[in-house]
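Morning!

As promised:
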Amino acid sequence: MKKSLSIALVGAAAAVTFGALYSLMPSPDAEQPLAQAALESNPYMTFLTEEQKQQVRDSFAASKQDGGIAREPQLDEANGAAAEDIPEMSPELMSYIANAQPEKIMEFFALARKERAETIQAMMRDEDENPEWKDEMLQYFTLSETLAPQMKGVTLLNADCRESVCALQVDYGQYIKNYQDIEPFLSNIGNLVGLDAWVHHDALPHGGVIYFARENTALPEMRKI
Amino acid sequence: MKYLFRIKLAVLSIVLALLSGCSVGVYDGLRVSNTASTINPWGYVTSAPTSASKMRVQARHPTTGSWVTIKNNVGISASVAWTTADGTKLYNWNAGNIVIPGVYWTTGTGGYFARIRTQWTTNGSSWINTLVSRKDAFECFTENFNGEGNTTSYMSSNCFSHRGEAYVYTSNYREGPASCPAPAAALAKTNGHYMVNQIPSCARTIVSNHMREKIDENNILLHYEINHNTSTAASKNALPNDASGTCSRQPGSDGTCELGGFFGGHERYIRRMERHVMVYDYPWMPEGKIPAWNGSTWIPTQFQNAEVSPNGSCNSWTCDGWRSDPITDSTPNALKPNSVLPGNVCAFASTAAVASASNSWHSSGHVNTGGHFGTFDSPANPLFFLWHNAINDVWVDYRNCP
């Protein structure tokens, strides 16, 4: 949350955020039996001795005596801190988490990636082609195969370089089933050439699109999640 | 494409492993006295020089945004400077002393910063960036847990800045607005770090945001590589009581706990986070030391939420993503036992006994806080590292016993 926002706005955002969060949570009283059962099967209980488990049970019970869920932001006393920054979050996303809908979350992020790609493509449509930059990027792509053998399994399908953005469509080939073997390299490819880059990894059925921003510029960000 | 994010631990070692060279002399986060100070860019490349091989040093112009060469035609020594444990020969380059021209400095809070990068060409035309080290480069290069150190794969996976360039700061520069205070010189530190409740809210936001940059599935899965049953494994160990499925949940894992035992494994894990934030040289994280939260104070808002998995979060250990469900208690009151307070902890006869005495406190912090924090996906929240920093203080205090 930007520091330039007024305290009032921060407060309003805090109220909305905590309201949204709180609405997703069971009340402390209703939660107790469920929480106790969950406690016994909690992974952090599995490696404890019986004596240690009892200490955790006691601590858990005591912690619920203090009012349980903190319903509103409290001010800490250190250094005169007067206002809290409330991390931004998407209520839509939080509802998927609370309702255990991982497929919805995947759709949510896939849509965000698609929107970012569409923003970049809209920029490209307004720009002229840049054949010199395209040649340079093709050289780098070839060079990357020399520097990282993993890249030899990735096929360049198309290169479209405009004034501010260059898009390389790639087919993952054998890596479609083992994307993790190539993902660390692809995600760092921007650092290699010193350009801001983003891999839209699921743009194509068997591949993706690597977008590069022209030197000293940046690609549009993904919308705030 | 669910499987796309199932990243095996093994792939950590391939990130740019075979690429380019590195800059060591000018590392990311370097402090200099002032804008007239000299810097000495030097480093290594991974192949013997040819007639076309050379290095160059560039600075980023803060107004135009362009990278400008400030030192060209830097030669590479034909002598092998270092042979790593995996047999890779490293060749030294050294650009000599350089004063960064004034035009490349950007004014910031309390001082200035400049952005420097080095590039290498093997054919005289295609330039590629080198990796950029951090302040603890040589400690990182040569550390040897599991016999994995001093290899190019380990170095490239662990010992270089994620930013790919070196930010050089003048001595009094600090991140953030001038209104966000730096720690007072007299403010006490605990084992070299601050406690989170000592840090003003504006600075906590900066700390939390930098830590969140490091959180992804790969990093979260590493938590499953810690043997929570053994206090100080000197090497990887099978989890003897793997009822929680920790070290075998890692896709592709052979069931061993790569990071080691409870204390040592978590310390190594924390260290990875500290190395990430080290490059910012933020005064509330001196030498990259992240703050600690000891379970007795309120969890600040910046540390209440987990990062959300783009591959789906759920409330099950079997989902492809990780858990991000909200914590259920921001005042969990997991109180540190008296027996492991500084001084008292020295009464224990062994590290294993110290770990045993800390176990219920550790577990209480997780389960009392609840939600994602009560699971082994808890490193999705930077609070995890603050919490374990406090746990690790017990081990540090024990090691410091007379």
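Helices of chain A lie at 7-24, 28-40, 50-65, 91-98, 102-125, 131-147, 183-187, 189-193.

Hope this helps with the figure draft.
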